[in-house]
Amino acid sequence: MLKSLTALYLLVAASVALPTRHSKRDDHNAGLTWISKDSSLPKIVLYNTGDGTILAGSPNGRLDTTNYGGPIGGLTPETLIESAHEVLDIAQIAVVNITTEGSGGAGSVNADPDRFLSISMDAHKRLCSEGSDIVGAVMAHGTNTLADTAFGVDLTLNCSKPFVATGAMRPNSALSADGPFNFYDAVRTAIHPEARDRGAMIALNDHLVSAFYATKTNGNTVSTFVAPDQGYIAQFMSGQPYFFYSPALPKARNHFDPFKLALPLPKVDVLYGYRKSSSVFTHGLGLIS
Question: Which residues does the UniProt record annotate as the domain L-asparaginase N-terminal (predicted)?
Answer without folding.
Answer: 43-246
